[in-house]
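Ops channel
N.P.: pipeline sanity check, posting one input/output pair.
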């Protein structure tokens, strides 16, 4: 009888030396994807040895589930890579011998070890723990592009739990979840589900698994179907004396300060590097806001898993609203700490991660704060505030020309994720602000400058680049660096009176921009809108892209909401009627409460918009009728942007103005109305950019 070590050596030689098996790199990937480590192989071989001994002694017993899974893996390889001259072998399904009169049960269903279930589920030769009865009543989910499977999380980042115990994961997988209480669900998720996602930065943390509860699942676990109260439903929480909350506390689990609400986080203190935390999202409590996730709450569980799974893969596993996820993504990509070696002890300890915002909150300069902030209230600050906000401007009706009024159409253009485009290569402050009197302006230093820009001449048919309402400033005011630099770009001298500047700087938002840009472009491509399209094809594709695949259209909406909400969270205002001016509110405890970074993004976006407006005048002679954040309305001889956008003789779009395309910063058609309708709205004091699409557009001001 061969020893365990000899058996292991034989199998290892087979895997690594046989020429007809996959190449070494492919074998390593398959072994990792299946979650088979040497320890598990050793355990399987040990079970084999015992099985042979039992057979020699005249006894028989069921095969080891681990060995069955391993055998299926080898069968799958043999079928995919047959030996020379051999016919492909059909995969063999391992079963357990059944007693007379009972149907045979698969080894997977009889396995007690959660690792065996995970291995079998990830093996290429057999799908994971599917339930035919549950799957038969669900539509077949469409497949989204999947990254390489992390062996620690073979079933993806999340699952949607239905009332019948089916947990729908990404890629069409369906897991059996036996939990009947929230505590059991948490234990199952952490120890048996195989859910989670790897860190986005080597100094960061893995994403906690997310379980989304349908209405039926929530009720089954003892939760109320709806949360009722006078507050907004997303602000509601279960009372501390609710039976479910008591169960969680009794089992020595904890809830975060936001309690048990639509997005509940249940955790225990981490043991070493292993986190013990599960995120719950409860659909019937409006966890998925309709504005950010249009139609998702009404989808089938498998489709909800697909939408959230694609978002988790391309952006981040949702941890709350899209605004919360946008802010969490910044931290995940720029972790505040990294491992550093203590020179005195030689131990590895958490140290500051260069380029991050650190671990401690930082008070802003008084002009960067909000009026209710303690920095303002405690100091009695009366020197004014930054007013870097998105455009809300309408051209005075008396400045319309007869030629413009006789044009038949008004066409609205919308810039794709304008704030995201502004975040690209944006240098922001990383350290605390320092106060300077009478400084020399430097466009490379991020900060806030008190300067008089009232002398800058701007055509009255264009908005002022220095104010959100487009009205020319009348005296000194506080501006972010990009706004002052644009005055210099226009050829005017600037003489700051004061400034709050930061000595340590960096492109903090760069990885955030890059990841969200790729997510936006890839999702549009899934909807048939690609970079290779001509402008005519692009406009046609954008007309029908939302109807191509409602699930992917919802992902696109969530990505856009993540950009806007993430920027807005940088200056989250106090919430609740109990708040009193001068008190510190919870958001101030975050290192990511940085109104100066928000101001930098919006300032650059507004300057980018004004630069395009000015270039359009030079190239076409056209002036805008109105601007609302990233939407601009132009008079047009036709109902298409192609009728007034500037093109070279070669047919290529002219650089510098508005250009059509699917990437951030390029434009798409927002809507078309008659010129008569537009002028009538302007005469009533309304902004046509808000209504040109139909309905009432939401101001995209990053709040």
């Amino acid at each position: 009888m061969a020893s365990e070590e000899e058996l292991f050596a034989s199998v290892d030689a087979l895997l690594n030396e046989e020429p007809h098996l996959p190449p070494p790199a492919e074998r390593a990937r398959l072994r990792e994807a299946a979650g088979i480590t040497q320890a598990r192989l050793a355990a399987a071989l040990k079970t084999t040895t015992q099985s042979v001994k039992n057979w020699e002694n005249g006894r028989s017993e069921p095969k080891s589930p681990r060995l069955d899974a391993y055998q299926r893996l080898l069968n799958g390889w043999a079928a995919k890579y047959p030996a020379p001259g051999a016919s492909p072998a059909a995969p063999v399904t391992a079963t357990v011998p059944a007693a007379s009169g009972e149907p045979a049960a698969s080894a997977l269903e009889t396995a007690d070890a959660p690792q065996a279930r995970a291995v079998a589920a990830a093996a290429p030769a057999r799908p994971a723990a599917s339930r035919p009865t549950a799957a038969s009543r669900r539509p077949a989910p469409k497949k989204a592009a999947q990254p390489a499977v992390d062996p620690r999380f073979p079933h993806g980042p999340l699952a949607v739990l239905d009332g019948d115990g089916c947990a729908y994961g990404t890629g069409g997988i369906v897991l059996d979840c036996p939990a009947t209480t929230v505590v059991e669900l948490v234990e199952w998720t952490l120890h048996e589900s195989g859910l989670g996602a790897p860190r986005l930065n080597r100094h960061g943390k893995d994403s906690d698994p997310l379980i989304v509860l349908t209405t039926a699942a929530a009720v089954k676990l003892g939760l109320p179907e709806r949360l009722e109260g006078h507050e907004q439903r997303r602000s509601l929480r279960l009372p501390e004396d609710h039976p479910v909350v008591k169960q969680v506390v009794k089992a020595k689990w904890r809830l975060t300060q936001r309690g048990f609400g639509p997005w509940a986080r249940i955790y225990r203190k981490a043991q070493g590097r292993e986190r013990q935390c599960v995120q719950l999202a409860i659909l019937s409590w409006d966890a998925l806001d309709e504005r950010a996730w249009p139609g998702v709450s009404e989808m089938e569980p498998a489709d909800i898993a697909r939408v959230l799974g694609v978002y988790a893969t391309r952006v981040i596993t949702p941890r709350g609203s899209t605004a919360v996820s946008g802010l969490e993504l910044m931290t995940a990509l720029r972790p505040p700490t990294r491992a550093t070696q203590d020179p005195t002890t030689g131990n590895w300890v958490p140290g500051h991660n260069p380029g991050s915002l650190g671990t401690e909150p930082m008070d802003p300069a008084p002009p960067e704060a909000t009026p209710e902030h303690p920095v303002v209230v405690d100091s009695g600050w009366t020197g004014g505030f930054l007013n870097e906000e998105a455009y809300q401007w309408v051209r005075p009706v008396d400045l319309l020309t007869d030629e413009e009024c006789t044009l038949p159409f008004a066409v609205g253009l919308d810039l794709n994720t304008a704030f995201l485009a502004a975040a690209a290569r944006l240098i922001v402050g990383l350290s605390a602000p320092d106060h300077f009197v009478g400084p020399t302006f430097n466009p490379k230093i991020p900060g806030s400058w008190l300067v008089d820009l009232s002398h800058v001449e701007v055509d009255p048919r264009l908005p002022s680049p220095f104010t959100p309402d487009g009205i020319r400033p009348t005296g000194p005011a506080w501006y972010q660096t990009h706004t002052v630099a644009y005055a210099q770009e226009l050829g005017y001298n600037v003489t700051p009176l004061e400034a709050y500047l930061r000595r340590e700087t960096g492109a903090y938002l760069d990885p955030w921009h890059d990841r969200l840009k790729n997510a936006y472009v890839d999702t549009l491509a899934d909807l048939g809108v690609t970079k290779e399209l001509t402008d005519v094809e692009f406009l046609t594709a954008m007309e029908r892209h939302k109807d191509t695949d409602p699930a992917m259209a919802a992902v696109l909406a969530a990505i856009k909401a993540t950009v806007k909400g993430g920027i807005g969270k940088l200056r989250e205002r106090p919430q609740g009627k109990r708040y009193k001016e001068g008190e510190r509110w919870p958001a101030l405890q975050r290192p990511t409460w940085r109104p100066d970074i928000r101001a930098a993004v919006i300032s650059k976006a507004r300057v980018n918009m004004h630069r395009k407006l000015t270039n359009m005048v030079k190239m076409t002679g056209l002036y805008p009728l109105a601007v609302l954040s990233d939407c601009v309305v132009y008079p047009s001889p036709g109902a298409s942007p192609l009728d007034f956008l500037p093109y070279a003789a070669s047919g290529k779009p002219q650089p510098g103005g508005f250009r059509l395309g699917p990437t951030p910063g390029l434009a798409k058609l927002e809507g078309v109305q008659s010129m008569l309708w537009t002028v009538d709205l302007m005469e009533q004091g309304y902004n046509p950019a808000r209504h040109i699409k139909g309905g009432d557009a939401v101001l995209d001001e990053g709040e």
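N.P.: looks fine end to end. The two ends are 72 Å apart (CA to CA).
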